[in-house]
Amino acid sequence: MSNRSNSDSEKNPDQSDSSNTADKSDDAQKTTKSNRKTLDLNDSSIHLFSDNEGTLGKTENDSDLEDKILSMRADQLLATQKDLEDRELKFFRRLADFLGEKEYIIKKERATEEELNATRNQLEELQKRIKPQIEKRKKELEALEKELNETMRRQKLREKQIHNSRKQLRKDRENFESIQKELALTIEMAKNEQKEMEKRLLDHKNEVSRKENELKKIYNEIDPIVAERQNLEREKDYYELQQKHIQDLLKENESTLEAIDKRIALFFNEKEELILRDQKITDREDAFRDKFENYDQRMRELRRKEKYIEAQTKKADEIVKRNEERQAEIKEEMEILARMREKLERKKKRLEIQKDAFHKESQDYLKNPLKKEEKFIEFEKQHIEDQNDMIQREREEMESRQEAFDRRVIEFMEEKARLIMIERNAKDIQEEYEIKKQMNKDHEEELEILEAELKTFELKLKSEQEQLDKAWEKLDEQVKKLVVAKQKNADDENKLKLMKEENLKLKEEIERMQEPYKAVSEKVAEISRNMTLQNIKDFMGPKELEDYKQVQYYFRLNEIEFQNKQKAMTEKVLNMKDENERVKLQAQHDIKQMQIENEELKRLVDEYKSEVLKISEENEENKKNLRKQLEINTVMKSKYDEEHEKSKKYEIIMQRQIIKNELEIKAIEKQKKQEMANEIEEIMAQYQIETKKKILEVQNDTKRRMIARFEQMRDEAVQEQVDAQINERVSEAVKFEVEKAVSKALFRERRRVAREHEQEKQILQQEVADQITEQLTEQFKEELIEQQQIIKEHYRKKIEKLQDQLNKAKKPKRNRNLTFHRD
User: Fold this and answer.
1) What are the tens digits of pLDDT across the range 52-84?
2) Which residues does the annotated region (Disordered) include (predicted)?
3) How far is residue 609's CA from residue 601's CA, in Å, rounded to a whole number?
4) What residues have CB less than 8 Å from 125, skipping those under 6 apart?
């Protein structure tokens, strides 16, 4: 029981901690009650003193007593105050200890709650898993109990049997004398049988010795057969040497054939390379033809482009004329404005002069009134003439300057365009000329390479023909050797036939010699069948057994080995014939194939030479055509360059006006883009603020929900754990009572089962804890992900709507008035 209590305390340390905390809380409550009792006693003492004072005041009115009473009261009050202070200090200290213990208990409770939440889920699955296991174990225990009952029953039966057997032994002891007499009779019978068996063994030994003598005579007659067998083995060795020599010749033949095959493969590889080079040459020629066959199409495309350029130049000329007219109108208007300004300034000057002159004339008019009018008329005439001269001079100067400026600009742009076109054309012409030059050089080099390769190929063919001739000579020599070997094989076959005939004769003689001993061998075989080895060993010695086995082995197996060797020799001879014939046929076939391949190679070389000559002739014709086409191209390019220069002039003028219009458009677009960007930034800032607020709200809601859910789970887990602990304690009590009733063997088995059960339980608890934590985290993550997806989709739709509105707002209105005017 002590061990069990210790194990329980080790299993649940949390329960021990909770019991300690409960004891501490009880101590704190007791201290508070004692403090309260002391306070009540002090109050009662104070009341008593007050009653005594009343009685004394009534009985005696002495002042001394009052002083003493007051001093006693003061002393008592001071004492009570000190006691109260000490008690308060103790009370607050105990309160602090109590609060610390309370905090510790709260922390422990929280830890236990967390552990309960973890273990509750574990216990659920443990119950699911352990219940069937417990049921199984219960069934097993029931089965063990049944087995124990059966064993007890069997033990009782055995005890009964033992008791009966003891009774029988007692009876046997009584009948021992009669049994001894029976044993003496059986021993005498066995001795008589042994004597008879010894007699039989002696007879059998005599027969075996007689048979050995007969066999020795037969061995002496078999000596010439052994000598002939040795001769046959010698001939066999000689035949094997011949076979090795033939195999060496065949290997040499195979090596020469492999060398010939390698050379043929190299020859075909070189042939494939030559064919590939021919294909490359033909591909290049086809590309060259394609270039100059499509020349007419290119010229048509150039003409079509020239027409298109002429139409564009006409349009450009019209646009330039319109712009020049507008510029002239603008210039005239500017000149008119300048003249008007000059006139106004002159009028101002005139008025000032007139004012000055008027004062003078007014004075002079009084003196001479006609002189004034005459001077005024002359002055106006001169002034008008001066104005006309100045206007004419200014107009001529402006026209001359404008014409000079336009001429310089046009000349500058023409020279620039001309230089650019000259550089481009010169580069193109040089590149084409160099490309064609390189093409011709490449063709010439390829022809030279092909001629060199043909020469090397011819040399290789000659060398290979010589090698083939040598190989043919070697093959002839090998064929001669094969013929000689064939003759030798025929001689060997004749010898083998003679040997077979002799062997047949010897067999017949051996059979004749063995006919009188067949009856003996049959009898021996019958004895060996009827009698086992143990019976033979009983009446035969070891030497006699060995002789018997040797005789039996000689008669049974020697003839079989001879027949097998004879069959092997005949099969080897037949295989040698087949191999020789196969080698001859294969050599003839290979020779025919080599002849056919040499003829095909010669034909291919002739065809290749003829194709090379044709290609060289075609290359010369192509060179002539190229020179003609180059001359035509130079003339066409010169014409094209002149027209291209003209088109460049008009393009430059058009580009200026286009650039001006584009700059104005870009400035307007920048302003609009800036305005749209500012609006977009403001909208996105507002949108982000709203989204953050809503996300925070959703997160807080989810957290609250999850906390409430975890609290519910915790409460349920605590209740389930309490129930489980109660069930465990009840089960342990039941087990303890059952264990007392069961025997020691069953108690040990049950203890072992309990240990295994506890180990499995711990393992399962760990697994369940891991699974539960993973499941809870996964559920929490999935719920958060789902809520985030819902929020994202909700706001993604709003973003798409805003983006559509922004895209609609971004589209700028087309300003048709920005481009230059058209009539």
Assistant:
1) 444 444 444 567 777 777 777 777 777 877 777
2) 1-61
3) 12
4) 764, 768, 771, 772
Q: Which of 617, 500, 586 is nearest to 235 (CA)?
A: 500
Alpha-carbon Rg for the chain, nearest whole angstrom, is 68
In a shared domain, residues 94 and 230 = no
Tokens of 756: 């295994």
Least Cα distance to 461 among 257, 274, 253 occurs for 274
Mean pLDDT of 772-783: 65
CA distance 388 to 620: 81
Domain boundary among 108, 129, 150: 129
Q: Is 121 in the same domain as 230?
A: no
Task: List all residues 6 or more positions away from 783 whose beta carbon is below 8 Å from its beta carbon.
Answer: 702, 706
Q: How far apart are CA 551 and CA 660, in angstroms?
A: 131
Alpha carbons 281 and 277: distance in angstroms, whole number: 6
In a domain, 470, yes or no: yes
User: Is this structure's pTM higher than 0.85?
Assistant: no
Selected residue with higher pLDDT from 147 and 687: 147
Write out the two tokens for 113.
């709650």
Among 71, 99, 129, which residue terminates a domain? 129
Kindly write down the DSSP assignment for every residue of 47-110, as one continuous string: HHHHHHHHHHHHH---HHHHHHHHHHHHHHHHHHHHHHHHHHHHHHHHHHHHHHHHHHHHHHHH
For residue 454, is it within any domain?
A: yes
C-alpha 90/C-alpha 30 separation (Å) is: 13
User: What does the angle CA 750 – CA 752 – CA 753 come to, to the nearest 5 degrees?
Assistant: 60
Tell me the DSSP string of 580-603. Answer: HHHHHHHHHHHHHHHHHHHHHHHH
Residue 785 maps to a domain: no
Percent of the chain at pLDDT > 70 equals 31
Q: Which residues of 284-295 are buried (b: 16+ CB within 10 A; e: fewer)?
A: eeeebeeeeeee
176-221 vs 369-530: helix crossing angle, rounded to 10: 100
> Which residue range forms the structural domain that includes residue 92?
17-129
352 backbone dihedrals φ, ψ, rounded to 5°: -65, -45
How far is the C-alpha of 488 from the C-alpha of 238, rounded, in Å?
A: 11
Of 53-57, 96-100, 781-785, give the lowest mean pLDDT range.
Answer: 53-57
